[in-house]
Design goal:
By secondary structure, the protein is mainly alpha-helical. It has helices spanning 2-11, 35-38, 49-77, 80-93, 95-104, 108-123, 132-135, 145-151, 170-182, 184-188, 195-211, 213-222, 226-242, and strands at 161-162, 166-167. α8 packs across α13 (226-242). The radius of gyration is 20 Å and the shape is globular.
């Protein structure tokens, strides 16, 4: 039991370099190539930065010696159809949590999609190992209570980076705790062995890390300040998730004073 708990705990050290969720290998992260690009607010709302950096390096150490090697082995040994089946199964298990947050956000269409996906994939998809719902025009999406709080304009709070969990500012840490009460597995195993939830926790972390091997390596290679880059990416991704991918056109840079006459010395330059 203690061994499983240790593996489960270390499994989520993928959050040390990934923002809230690990990015798929085919996603293009917003790379930071300078300290300014890494985070434009120069650490604004990060009053615990020295402690956060310590825990960041600690998680990075455990990722280097344990999680990344395990994830690399998993990626090399388990064939892609098997990995996809595991991912589909884990996503399907999370459907009740997603559905609860869809409803709390008043996203009725998305809630209907989540409920339909769960029914179709649990039956036709053989307990979620396959994802026929996506082929039928119902793509998977993710929601959590941290996002729900964000839709009601609850502030993120001071940035916090924790061992194992990674980025966990107060709003998202609260969301993580509340989501456990939306998860049926919490109640199924309330008085019994917690091996099943812990194994799910571990396998999810390993699978997410395996899907992000190249992306996370690229982020680290191209970052002047790895910690600040992760902080920036985490905030960007969470903002996008809360908005469900919708662009807030009131939150764009002020371009009134930009000069597009390339013959003038103060004009912005662009490279392609």
């Amino acid at each position: 039991m203690a061994g499983i708990a240790l593996v489960a705990a270390l499994a989520l050290t993928f959050a040390l370099t990934a923002p809230h969720r690990a990015m798929a290998a085919d996603e293009e992260p917003a790379m930071a190539t300078s300290d300014t690009d890494a985070y434009n607010d120069s650490g604004e709302n990060d009053p615990l930065e020295p402690m956060n950096r310590y825990f960041f390096e600690l998680n990075k150490f455990f990722d280097t010696i344990l999680l990344k090697p395990v994830a690399t082995w998993y990626d090399g040994v388990v064939p892609e159809p098997g990995r996809n089946g595991i991912r589909n199964f884990l996503d399907n298990l999370r459907s009740p949590v997603i559905l609860a947050n869809d409803l709390l956000q008043g996203e009725w269409d998305r809630a209907g999609t989540t409920a339909s996906r769960f029914g179709i994939n649990t039956t036709v998809g053989l307990l979620g190992l396959f994802d026929p719902a996506a082929d039928w025009g119902m793509p998977q999406h993710s929601e959590d209570f941290g996002q729900t709080l964000g839709t009601y304009d609850v502030a993120e709070g001071p940035y916090l980076f924790l061992p194992v969990l990674g980025p966990a500012p107060p709003r998202d840490l609260t969301g993580f705790v509340v989501d456990q009460f939306f998860d049926p597995l919490t109640y199924i195993y309330w008085d019994d062995s917690s091996d099943v939830p812990l194994i799910r926790f571990a396998v999810n972390g390993i699978d997410q890390r395996a899907r992000s091997l190249d992306t996370l390596d690229q982020i680290e290679r191209t970052s002047v300040d790895h910690y600040a880059t992760v902080r920036n990416l985490y905030r960007q991704i969470r903002k996008n998730e809360i908005a469900n991918g919708k662009r807030d056109f009131d939150d764009l840079p002020d371009i009134d004073n930009l000069n597009f006459d390339t013959n003038e010395t103060d004009s912005p330059s662009a490279s392609f």
